[in-house]
Please model this.
Amino acid sequence: MAEVYQASTTAPVNIAVVKYWGKRDPKLNLPTNSSVSVTLSQADLRTHTTAACSSSFTEDTLLLNSSPQDVSGARTQACFRELRSLRAALESADPSLPKLSPLPLRIVSENNFPTAAGLASSAAGFAALVRAIANLYELPSSPTDLSRIARQGSGSACRSLFGGYVAWQMGSKADGSDSVAVEVAPASHWPTMRALILVVSAEKKGVSSTSGMQITVGTSELFQRRAEVVVPKHMELMTKAIQEKDFETFGKVTMMESNSFHATCLDTFPPIFYLNDVSRAAIRVVEDINRKAGKIVAAYTFDAGPNAVIYFEEQNLALVAGLLKGVLGNLDGWQGRDIEVQEATDVDARAVEVLKGGVSRVILTSVGEGPIRTEESLIAANGEPLQK
Ligand SMILES: Nc1ncnc2c1ncn2[C@@H]1O[C@H](COP(=O)(O)OP(=O)(O)OP(=O)(O)O)[C@@H](O)[C@H]1O
Ligand SMILES: C[C@@](O)(CCOP(=O)(O)OP(=O)(O)O)CC(=O)O
Model:
């Protein structure tokens, strides 16, 4: 029987606090601005991927949550091609190495959260795919080197190669070699950061990030100001806020960034609406929580969909999560955490009702680590995918 080589990893989701929106080169996924994200804990949200290769396989395949995916797309192909060429270079430098680069790849992956629902599945998915194949090929590449490859799968994926607080530097070179992710600070630098996700919709979204951002680039004038003036200022403030663990600035910039990004969506022609009434109710409740506290203790942010991500620090668990548990305590997602419930006094009553009617579940998580190698495999020794 032909030998089956394999390696596995898990990879995290990241949620941006300075948003990536717009490409200067759609083929290479080169962005029009830099961005910053927080990597979320894999205890709650993760992709698990096994990469295998063998001469007994007939073609490159990808099985995602048990369903076969098309791998002929330019993005997946770019990742396969770049990783193979790094392996081929190792093989030609050391002829004793097994010749893995020409062998067909079999990738098996599982997301433990809804795919394509604005929960950054493509980020965790492509980060895991690239990391798993790099492990399989025993590449000496650093996370920054791999971020250059994962970026071509999905832009935001480049930030999921690191844990903690991560910047994607837009770079200026035409070949994209300087458009990479770097660590701003590890999770251990500011470990008290929490994220409460209000899942408003787990459905596939209407306008994908990929096409939405290109229509914005082509039609919005506001977008130009965002890329040239707003984001560079926010990048500076955000990096410093993270270094100094200054939640008030972190929170203010996070909220203003989300608002700026969604304003450019509205300024796109025809307009793109990712926020809905439930999202706006979440914004209102966060504002009321901050007003009650007399300072910024909670910060909302929204990606290309209505789900709210609310960042806060552990010391404000009762003020933020406790209050929202008072409103949404009947939903799934609060288990396993001892949270003192707070009355939603001094909070807009209508917004509370809208949240009650529109949020389907919550996910309470925290800042976490980057991809983690695992011996737990999704492919049997004979090369067959393992059914869970
Ligand atoms: N585990 C995975 N392995 C490989 N590819 C994946 C994986 N998970 C998701 N993807 C790819 O990502 C696509 C979903 O990306 P999409 O950008 O539409 O949604 P999203 O990532 O959930 O939302 P967003 O990035 O806007 O927050 C899937 O259709 C699939 O091609
Ligand atoms: C709103 C965002 O989540 C957009 C993410 O866009 P994608 O990374 O999904 O886009 P592609 O590069 O086309 O795959 C903001 C962010 O994550 O920075």
Summary: The chain has nine helices and 16 strands. Residues 16, 19-21, 29, 35, 122, 154-156, 209-210, 303-304 surround DP6 (ligand 2) (CB under 6 Å).
